[in-house]
TrEMBL record:
Pfam families tied to this protein: ABC_tran (PF00005)
Alphabetized InterPro entries for the sequence: AAA+_ATPase (IPR003593), ABC_transporter-like_ATP-bd (IPR003439), ABC_transporter-like_CS (IPR017871), ABC_transporter_ATP-binding (IPR050763), P-loop_NTPase (IPR027417)
Boundaries of every ABC transporter domain copy: 6-235
Entry keyword Ligase: no
Gene Ontology molecular function: ATP binding; ATP hydrolysis activity
Identification of the protein by name: ABC transporter ATP-binding protein
PANTHER family on file: ABC TRANSPORTER ATP-BINDING PROTEIN
Annotated organism of origin: Erythrobacter litoralis (strain HTCC2594)
Length: 314
């Protein structure tokens, strides 16, 4: 396996007063992937991004980006990293085009009108290029943040809650834009508390709580390991008790014996196969049914479950 584009080892940040925002974080990011860092407010997501981007000084630990130590050799790596923060921090009276062009020049790159136009057009901001930032809508201001971050053509892009406060349609548009970035070869790390955002776009998912990484895995693998299958089977005739062949499955009678509920597959990813076996057992036992409703647990349910387990353990 090739060297990770970002390698974080033992990263800890303790603020004055004793708040431990990051607690011995290890994280490796692969080139070209979209990585989603999930966690509730105050989990340490923004602090982690700030540490990598040079906005927060870690208490201990190491950060290597593109093979460079960010503590001693940050100049060689910082220009290859882009950041889209949560809040817009720029001159609200500045025109859109000038703001994006200035962001490029801040990194020592030569002016490139064609590149700035390409970025603004890709974000549907070209017709707003001469307008002052203060005149933009909330969604357009969010796009402007991305344009400013893309102006110096970063290889690694951080998006801190990129769709917070925007409507569903704009959020979907942002997802398409992030996918296009990946196609250009940009590695994307996004923090979010919108679970569907990670489910839609991410290749891998990391879950962080109270400054600690609880789990990192490929999205599909995470859902196979921790997902559950739930099936509700409507019975043609109510049952007062389950035959032994049926009771051997993780099932319960509900709604006065008229519904059979299966909940299983946790940790195995084989819930669907077990539901099929259950259906066969019902047929063998001559138990008629009129309908089956099967669903898989979502990433949100896995996220909540993991956080709940850690809370209990704490």
């Amino acid at each position: 396996m090739s060297e990770p584009i970002l390698d974080i080892q033992g990263l800890t940040k303790i603020y004055p007063g004793g708040l431990k925002a990051l607690d011995d974080v290890d994280l490796q990011i692969r080139q070209g992937e979209i990585f989603a860092l999930l966690g509730p407010n105050g989990a340490g997501k923004t602090t982690l991004i700030g540490a990598v981007c040079g906005l927060v000084r870690p208490t201990s630990g190491t950060i290597r980006a593109f093979g460079h130590d960010m503590a001693s050799d940050w100049r060689h790596a910082r220009g290859r990293i882009g950041l889209v923060p949560q809040e817009l921090a720029t001159d609200m009276f500045e025109p859109v085009y000038r703001a994006v062009a200035y962001s490029r020049e801040l990194f020592g790159l030569a002016p490139d009108k064609a590149r700035i136009e390409e970025i603004l057009r890709s974000l549907n901001l070209w017709d707003k290029k001469d307008e002052r930032i203060m005149a933009l809508s909330g969604g357009m201001k969010r796009r402007l943040l991305i344009a400013k971050a893309m102006a110096h053509e970063p290889d690694l892009l951080f998006l801190d809650e990129p769709t917070a406060g925007v409507d569903v349609e704009l959020r979907k548009g942002m997802w398409q834009l992030i996918g296009a970035m990946r196609e250009r070869g940009v590695t994307v790390i996004l923090t979010t508390h919108y679970i569907e955002e990670a489910e839609e776009m991410a290749d891998r998912v990391g879950i962080i709580s109270r400054g600690r990484i609880l789990k990192v895995d490929d999205k599909a693998s995470l859902m196979r390991q921790l997902g559950r299958t739930e099936a509700h089977i409507a019975l043609a005739n109510p049952l007062s008790a389950l035959p032994p062949a049926i009771a051997s499955f993780p099932v319960e009678l509900e709604q006065g014996g008229t519904s059979l509920c299966y909940r299983g597959g946790d940790g195995t990813g084989k819930g669907k196969a077990e539901v099929a076996q259950l259906i066969k057992a019902l047929v063998d036992e001559s138990i008629d049914f009129t309908g089956i409703d099967t669903r898989e647990s979502s990433l949100e349910e896995i996220f909540v479950s993991l956080l709940g387990e850690k809370e209990v353990a704490a």
